Amino acid sequence: MNSPALSADQRPPAQLICAPERIFDTAAFHRSFTEATAHHGKSSEVRAAAVKLLRESQRSGRQAIAEAFSDAPFEARAMTRAYTYLTDRLVTAALYVAKDVLHPKPNPTSSEHLAVIAVGGYGRGEMAPFSDVDLLFLTPYKITAWAESVIESMLYILWDLKLKVGHASRTIKDCLRLGASDFTIQTAMLEHRFLAGDSALAQTFADRLRTDLFTGSGKQFIEAKLAERENRHVKYGQRYVVEPNVKEGKGGLRDLQSLFWIAKHIHGVKDAADLVGLGVFSAEEFESFVAAEDFLWAVRGHLHLLSGRAIEQLTFDMQVQVAEAMGYEDVNGRRAVEVFMQQYFLHATEVGDLTRIFLTKLEADHVKDDPLLDRIFRRKPKVKPGYKVVHNRIAIADDAVFFKDRVNLLRLFEEALRTGMLIHPDAMRLVKSNLHLIDDDMRANPEARRIFFDLLLKHGNPERALRRMNELGVLASFIPEFEPIVAMMQFNMYHSYTVDEHIIQCIKNLAQIERGELEEDLPVVSSILKKGVDRKVLYTALLLHDIGKGRPEDHSILGAQMARKIAPRLGLSKADTDTIDWLVRYHLLMSDMAQKRDIADPRTVRDFAKAVREVKRLDLLCVLTVCDIRGVGPNTWNNWKAVLIRALYRQTKRALETGLEDLNRENRGVEAKRALREALSDWSRKDLQTETARHYDPYWQGLHVTAHKVFAEMLRNVKEDEILIDLHPDEERDATRACFVMSDHPGIFARLAGALALVGANVVDARSYTTKDGMVTDAYWIQDADGNPYDAARLPRLRKMIERTLKGEVVTTEAMKSRDKVKKRERAFKVPTHITFDNEGSEIYTIIEVDTRDRPGLLHDLARTLAEANVYVANAVIATYGEQVVDTFYVKDMFGLKYYSESKQRSLERRLRAAIDQGVERAES
Question: Are residue 411 and residue 325 in the same domain, yes or no?
C-alpha cells in the first residue's frame, strides 16, 4: 500500500513544541499498518488494526506534547500547533484507511469526490489538548453511497480514538445557503483549512465563499458577532469574576477570536499581525494582543491537561494546579495562585482594551451616518474647547494642544462624566501612552487634586470614572500605591472581585446610597448621609481602605500608614488625614463586632463605643462598613447582617449620646420584662410573675420580646420529659428562628447543633439559657444551603428530624460522616486555625473564638467537644466568610466561672484543634 503524499498544508508548521516525529511518525505508521494488515481481508479487522496503531501513536504523541509543554509552560503557540498537527495526522490517516483501503475507488465518477476540511478552531490551527475536532466533508454534488461509506468508516475510527468530532457533510451550494442564514456556520467556514482529498474541490469552495458569501455581508456579520459577545458576557460573567471562564468569559479567548473573525471577514487578513499594517493596532498594541493570547492559551492548555478533559472554567482548585504547572511561586506573603491570577486579570483587562480599540475603528469605517432627520433633530452634546465628538464619543481635538497642560489627562475623565459620553479609544490610547507625564509635580497640582475629587464627589457617577481611570492606568499613576492591588486576586470564596474592583464596587454603593436608590434597603446609612457627613473624608477612606492588601503585614495597619502619606498629597488637612487614618485602620471593627460578638452583651457595645469615641466617627464607620460588605459580592449583604449592623449602630449611638452607664444588664432586664408584660396582656398577674421570675439576667438581654413571648407560651404548656419545638421564619433577619424547650441535661447544645447540621441547616446564631427551675430555653437562627429562611413546606421535615435526633433515634456523629464532605473545588483553600480566649469582652463569660475552615458539622464537633470537657455554652455567634468561619462561644466552666487558668485554656484548645483535625480528615477522605 502506498502512503499518500503530504500537501503543503499538511506539512508540520515551523514551530512545534517538540520534533514532529515524536508527535506522529507518518512513515512508521504506514509501515506498521501495512505489516499488520498484510494477511487481513475483513474490513472489521483492518479497521481494528488501524485503530490500535493510531491509538498508540495518539497516546505517545500526546505524552510527548504534554512533557514538552511541562518543560516550557508558556510556549502556548507551539503547544496548540502540536495538538493540531497530531490531530491532522490522525484525521488524514483515518481518511487514508477509509478511502484507500476499506473503500477504494480507482476510477471515481465526477460525483465521487471528497474533500475533508477543518473548520472552526481546528481550521484555525489552534487546539487545546481536548478541543473538539470540527470537520466538513465536502462533495461536489449530492452525497453518494461511496462517500457515505468513506465518511462513516472514517468517523468510526475517530470515535474509537475518543476524539470529540463535530461533522457535517455538504455540497458547496449547501454551505453557501446555510452560511447566509446562520452566522455560527459562517464563522466556522471563515476559518476553514483543507486537510486531504480533492484539492480542486476545496479551492473552488474557498473561492465561492469569498465571492458569494463573505463579500457584502460585513455589517450583518459584525452585528451578529457583537450580539453573540454581549450574550456570552452575560452568561459567563464579567472580567473580574474570581472563577473566570478562560474561553467564553469577558477578556477570554473568545473575545480575541471574535475580534479576529471580524477582522478576517472585513479586511480579509490571514494573521492578526496584518492588523498593524492596516492601522487598526499599533505595534505595541499588537504585542499586547500576542502576549494576552499566548498567556490565555497556555492557561487553557494546562487546564485541559491537569483535568484530563475539556474544561474551560478556572475553578479555585484548578487555579492552584495551573499556577504550579506554570511555575509561579509564593512571593512577599502572597500565594503563587494569587500572583498567577493577578497576571490573568491583567491580561483579561488588556483584551478588553484591545477589543474596544478595534470595534471603534470598525465603527468609524463601516457605520453609516444617521439619517438626515435624526441628525437635524437629535440634540448633540456640547463639549468644552479642546474636545470633539466622534461617533458619540468624546475625543481629543488636537494632541499637541492637549499635552501642553498635563492636567488634561484628568480633565478628559471629568469632561466624559459631565457630558455623559464614553471616551473615544483613540483618546484612551493617547492617555495610556503618556502616563509618564503624571509625576510628583502633577500630583501636587491643586487643579489636578480638585478635578480628582470632583470625579469622586461632584458628578454622581464616580464608579464610571474610576473604572476607566483604573483600566487605563491613570488611577495607579495618580496614586502610585494603588498599582500593586490592580487586578489583585483575593484567593478565597468570600470575595467575588479583585481588590481594585472591590474598591470600585464600594464606591458605587456609596454613590447609590447618596442618590437615594437604596433608602428602603438601607434606612440607617441613608439617614446618616442625609443628615450630612464629610464626603471627601468618606470617599477617600473608602478608596484607600484595602490599599494595604497583598503584603505580609496586617492590611488595615499598613493601609492606615499608607493613607497617612496619601491623604496630605491629595491636599487633605491634618484633621481629615487623622480621621481617614482611623477609618482605614479600623474599617473591619464594626463588621467584626457585629458578626463575631454578642451585641446583646452590654460589654460588646461599651467596648465598641470606647473605640469609636464620637458619633461623627461612628456615622462614617457605619457607612463605610455597609459599603464594604456590599462591595464584597452580589449576595454578601443580607438582612441578617443588616439587623446586626443596625442594632450595633443604634445602641452605640445611644451610649455615646446619653452615657455609657445606660449600658447595664439591669436597665435592659427591666425594659425586656415590661415589653413581655405588654405582649402577654391577657395573662394573669400571677402567671406573669412566675414567668419573669424564672429566668436569669442574661436571658432578658439576649432575646427580642417576640422570642420571650414564644418561650413563655412553651414553658407554660411543657410537660415533664417533653421536647417542644417552635420553628418560625424571621423575615427581618433572613433566617428561621428555632426555639426549643426541654428539661436541662449535659450536652444539649451540642445535640441541637448536630440535629440542625443533619438537616443541612446553617446556624448563624445560637443562644442557650437555663431557667431557675431546670428547663432549657434554646434559640437558634438557621438558614438553608442558599442562605435563606426555610420555606414553610420544609418545616415539618425539619421538625421531624430534629425530634428524632433529640430522642436519640439518630446518632449524630455517625450520620454526619456522609455529610461532612468538602467539595473538590473548595479543597485548594488554606485556612489556618486560630483559637483565642478573651476574658475581657464579657462581664460573666469567657469568649472562645475559633477561626478555621468551614465545613458541614463543624459547629456540632466544636459544641460536642466543649460539652465533653464540661464547658457550659451560653451562646454561639457564627460568622462565615466564604470557606472561612469564625465560631464564637460565650462559655463558663461547670462552677459558673470564667476560664482564667492558662493550663485549662491550653487543654481546651488542644481538644478543639483535635476535633477540627478529625473533622477535616473525615471531610477529605
Answer: no
In angstroms, the CA 464 to CA 817 distance is: 49
- Is 724 within 8 Å of 714 (Cβ atoms)? yes
What mean pLDDT is predicted for residues 388-395?
89
Domain of 297, CATH number, reads 1.20.120.330
For residue 162, how many other CB atoms are within 10 A of its CB?
Answer: 9
Residue where the block lists cell 424564672: 694
Q: Which three cell numbers stand for residue 71?
A: 518543560
Q: CA-CA distance, 112 to 637, in Å (whole number)?
A: 67
Measured CA to CA, the distance from residue 872 to residue 715 in angstroms comes to 22
Q: 133-139 and 165-171: which strand pairing? A: parallel
Question: Is 516 a residue whose pLDDT tops 90?
Answer: yes
Residue-wise pLDDT for 447-488, tens only, equals: 999 999 999 999 889 999 999 999 999 999 999 999 999 999
Q: What is the C-alpha to C-alpha distance for residues 491 and 549, in angstroms, rounded to an integer?
A: 12
223 exposure class (CB count in 10 Å sphere: 0-12, 13-18, 19+): exposed
CA angle 508, 511, 513 (to 5 degrees): 110
Q: Judge whether 212 lies within some domain.
A: no
Question: Is 2 inside a domain boundary?
Answer: no
Give dist(CA 779, CA 767) in Å, integer.
Answer: 5
Other Cβ atoms less than 10 A from the Cβ of 99: the count is 23
- Give a yes or no: residue 1 inside a domain: no
pLDDT digits (tens, 9 = 90+) for 100-123: 999 998 888 888 899 999 998 899
Number of Cβ within 10 Å of residue 535's Cβ equals 14
Instruction: State the DSSP H helix or E strand holding residue 265, giving kind and residue range, or none if neither.
Output: helix 253-267
3-state secondary structure 734-746: CEEEEEEEEECCC
Q: Report the alpha-carbon distance of residue 193 to residue 170 in Å, rounded.
A: 15
* Residue 17 identity (one-letter amino acid): I
pTM: 0.85
Query: Domain range for residue 150?
Result: 8-127+135-172
Cα maximum dimension of the chain: 111
Task: Give the CA angle between residues 361, 363, 366 to the nearest 5°.
Answer: 105
DSSP string computed for 66-89: HHHHHHSTT-HHHHHHHHHHHHHH
Strands of the sheet containing 846-853, edge to edge, are: 724-730, 735-743, 775-783, 762-770, 872-881, 884-892, 846-853, 834-838
Euclidean distance between CA atoms 403 and 754, whole angstroms: 68
Q: At residue 64, what is the residue type?
A: A
Do 361 and 373 have their domain in common? no
> What SS3 state is found at 205?
helix
Q: Of 507, 514, 512, which Cα lies nearest the Cα of 529?
A: 514
- Do 415 and 540 lie in a common domain? no
CA separation for the pair 246, 303 (Å, rounded): 9
Name the DSSP letter for residue 899: -
The size of the chain, in residues, is 925
Query: Rounded mean pLDDT of the chain?
Result: 88
**Cβ contacts of residue 637 below 8 Å, gap of 6+?**
626, 629, 630
The answer to whether residues 589 and 687 belong to one domain is no
CA 94 – CA 89 distance, rounded (Å): 8
